[in-house]
């Protein structure tokens, strides 16, 4: 996960970087975006097959309904779609059960889909009088909903009511993923993020068909999950974070809230309890976990590789068993990530001993193991069911190639391509650069099936974009580092290899900018992407003038947004708080 070259202390340069506003771009775009020939040409990730029909357009009206196949899970997808569309349209959009598509409806059906869609794909058909999404599973319907979102105007992503019309261009999509696992990783250990921040990130990445959240819950700098049998792990081990500060942790009820929210977005959570290294927060909380019986102090720097559980103590394995038991009971997914990386303070012999004892504990509690690629060199070899997460910066890793040859699946996360915490360039206000700088084109221009020697497509489990939080403190920080690179990694996981083309992708990526503007996502405006200079369309209302008197209900244009006066006003600029907050932001122009 981390290179030991990072250094031992949070230096003054990094501390200063933390204070820089994350909205600053390195430089201005160099070209204007070319408008896609149709909305279908702007979809990210690129679908398998698209057939536009320019002669038909479906319009969502106040009378439109959402029809769902009867069943609890499909009703959940319908409810989600209703919530998305009610905000910008202001329409009621009732959700009703039915097994057939009907006029003036958006129908979500588990019948009639082309068998090619498999378990996660979908078929979307738009005519003048209806939109029909068909799939074999609720996950497929959910994926189809994400494509439907991108066929609507960008203002559909706004949380406030906008002006229509709400049109969906006619056409058909047949789509299914290249890899079944498409993940995003979030480090809540280096800096703690509250439940609402994690839930918002889940919402944002779900839009790009990410179906797994790998949650890094423990590390040297903080323990972030309540363990009832070892309570000091959270109350003491979670009491600080990188650079100091109060830290924090999730109660088990809060963790279950995250799990439930992810499930409502057809996303599985994989918890990570990193061991035997990256464990200083645990060692500081319980002296008996140390070989010498002395608890070290809590750490708030970003050094790695110095901590280790005591391999030869029985209490170590009781501790591991208790933690895995409690987290596993809270987590319905199949996989449990045991870390295993950068255990530099653990000898090879001790590392092997630890893995021979830890891996069966995961199996005992009904979980299949995942681990960073160091697990591949354990002897005896980890079971072939163990998923190896490749994070190397070099294409050659003999231990990983040998594991793939034995039958282990490999999750691709090369640090110099997929790590979202790497700086975009030398001017980036956030991030590190030990794996190099990763601009958007770097994040996109690699193939998970050919990148690592000895790991062919049949051995690739999927792709994942890790986001470590040494320099990140807020949701805006997370967004700035993830967007636009996260959609690039998502496309590598979903779209067919034959569609992989940077020149085409950057145009489709540019079309996402107005959507992120409407949604309030703080993204990096890479100069490699031809972002639109303004949102599509124009504000038709008169421009605001400071000297004029406006009465309640008056509509004006200002700052590429539309505004409604709440009551009498003059001189209070839309977008500022004013004395009474007299203007209501109706969102970006569309």
From TrEMBL:
Keyword Signal: yes
Signal peptide start-end: 1-33
Domain Chitin-binding type-3: 541-586
Pfam families: CBM_5_12, Glyco_hydro_20, Glyco_hydro_20b
EC number: 3.2.1.52
SUPFAM superfamilies linked: (Trans)glycosidases, beta-N-acetylhexosaminidase-like domain, Carbohydrate binding domain
Keyword Amino-acid biosynthesis: no
InterPro entries for the chain: Beta_hexosaminidase_sua/sub, CBM5/12, CBM_sf_5/12, GH, Glyco_hydro_20_cat, Hex-like_dom2, HEX_bac_N
Catalyzed reactions per annotation: Hydrolysis of terminal non-reducing N-acetyl-D-hexosamine residues in N-acetyl-beta-D-hexosaminides
Keywords from the UniProt entry: Glycosidase, Hydrolase, Signal
Superkingdom as given in the UniProt entry: Bacteria
SMART domains xrefs: ChtBD3
Similarity-based family: Belongs to the glycosyl hydrolase 20 family.
Name by which UniProt lists this protein: beta-N-acetylhexosaminidase
Source organism: Allokutzneria multivorans
């Amino acid at each position: 996960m981390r290179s030991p070259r990072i250094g031992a202390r949070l230096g003054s340069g990094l501390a200063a970087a933390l204070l820089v506003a994350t909205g600053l771009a390195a430089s201005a775009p160099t070209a204007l975006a070319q408008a896609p020939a149709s909305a279908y040409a702007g979809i990210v990730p690129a679908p398998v097959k698209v057939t536009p029909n320019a002669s038909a357009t479906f319009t969502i009206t106040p009378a439109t309904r959402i029809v769902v196949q009867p069943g609890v899970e499909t009703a959940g997808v319908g409810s989600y779609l209703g919530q998305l569309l009610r905000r910008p349209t202001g329409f009621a959009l009732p959700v009703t059960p039915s097994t057939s598509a009907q006029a003036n409806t958006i129908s979500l059906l588990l019948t009639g889909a082309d068998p090619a869609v498999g378990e996660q794909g979908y078929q979307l058909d738009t005519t003048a009088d209806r939109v029909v999404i068909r799939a074999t599973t609720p996950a497929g319907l959910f994926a189809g909903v994400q494509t439907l979102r991108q066929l609507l105007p960008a203002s559909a992503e706004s949380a406030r009511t906008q002006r229509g019309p709400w049109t969906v261009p006619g056409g058909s999509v047949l789509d299914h993923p290249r890899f079944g696992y498409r993940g995003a990783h979030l480090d809540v250990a280096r800096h703690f993020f509250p439940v609402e921040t994690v839930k918002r990130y889940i919402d944002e990445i779900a839009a790009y068909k990410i179906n797994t959240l790998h949650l890094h819950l423990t590390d040297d700098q903080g323990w972030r999950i309540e363990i009832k049998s070892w309570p000091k792990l959270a109350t003491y081990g979670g009491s600080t974070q990188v650079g100091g500060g109060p830290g924090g942790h999730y109660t088990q009820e809060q963790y279950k809230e995250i799990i439930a929210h992810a499930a409502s977005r057809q996303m599985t959570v994989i918890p990570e309890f990193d061991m035997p290294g990256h464990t200083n927060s645990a060692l500081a909380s319980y002296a008996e976990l140390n070989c010498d019986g002395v608890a070290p102090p809590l750490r708030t720097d970003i050094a790695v590789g110095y901590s280790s559980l005591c391999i030869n103590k029985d209490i170590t394995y009781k501790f591991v068993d208790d933690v895995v038991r409690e987290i596993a009971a809270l987590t319905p997914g199949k996989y449990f990530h045991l870390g295993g990386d950068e255990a530099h303070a653990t000898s090879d012999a001790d590392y092997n001993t630890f893995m021979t004892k830890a891996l069966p504990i995961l199996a005992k509690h009904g979980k299949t193991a995942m681990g960073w690629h160091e697990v591949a060199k354990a002897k005896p070899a980890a079971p072939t069911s163990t998923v190896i997460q490749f994070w190397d910066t070099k294409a050659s890793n003999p231990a990983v190639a040998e594991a793939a040859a034995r039958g282990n699946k490999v999750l691709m996360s090369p640090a110099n391509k997929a790590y979202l915490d790497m700086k975009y360039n030398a001017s980036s206000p956030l991030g590190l650069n030990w794996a190099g700088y990763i601009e958007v084109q770097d994040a996109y221009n690699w193939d998970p099936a050919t990148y690592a020697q000895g790991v062919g497509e049949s051995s690739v489990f999927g792709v994942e974009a890790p986001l470590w939080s040494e320099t990140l403190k807020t949701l805006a920080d997370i967004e700035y580092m993830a967007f636009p690179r996260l959609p690039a990694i998502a496309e590598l996981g979903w779209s067919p290899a034959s569609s992989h083309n940077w020149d085409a992708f950057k145009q489709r990526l540019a079309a996402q900018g107005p959507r992120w503007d409407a949604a309030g996502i703080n993204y990096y405006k890479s100069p490699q992407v031809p972002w639109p200079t303004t949102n599509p369309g124009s504000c038709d209302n008169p421009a605001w003038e400071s000297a004029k008197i406006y009465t309640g209900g008056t509509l004006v244009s200002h700052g590429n947004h539309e505004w409604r006066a709440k009551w009498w006003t003059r001189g209070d600029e839309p977008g500022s708080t004013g004395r009474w907050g007299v203007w209501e932001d109706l969102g970006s122009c569309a």
